[in-house]
Amino acid sequence: MSFYSPDVRDELDTMLEVTAMSRKGYLNQAERTRQSSSEYQTARKGHSGVESCMNHLNHRRMDVVREVSPDAFARAIAL
Predict the structure, then answer these.
(1) Among candidates 53, 77, 56, which has minimal Cα distance to 65?
(2) 3-state helix, strand, coil in the chain (%, to 5)
C-alpha cells in the first residue's frame, strides 16, 4: 500500500531533509533523478529498520500509550 501523494510529499519536504517516498508508476526525469541520489537510497534502505522497530513495538503491545499527562508521556518516551 502506498501513501504517496504530491501534497503529502510537499508537506514532508518542509519537515525532513530527505523524503524517501517512492512514486508508483512511470517516473518522470525529475523523479528518476531524485530517486537515484545517494541520500535517497540511504534513507530508503533505512526505512526497513524503522518498520522492523515498529513491528517489534506492536508485537510487545507497546503501541498503546498508557500515560495521560504530557509530563508522564515525555518521561515514557525519554524526551
Answers:
(1) 77
(2) 60, 0, 40
Q: With beta carbons less than 8 A apart as the criterion, state whether 40 and 34 touch.
A: yes
C-alpha cell at 64: 498503546
29-79 residue pLDDT tens: 998 998 999 999 998 888 788 788 878 877 877 766 676 788 877 777 775
Report the C-alpha gap between 25 and 27 in whole angstroms: 6
Q: How confident is the model at residue 20 (pLDDT cuts 50, 70, 90)?
A: confident
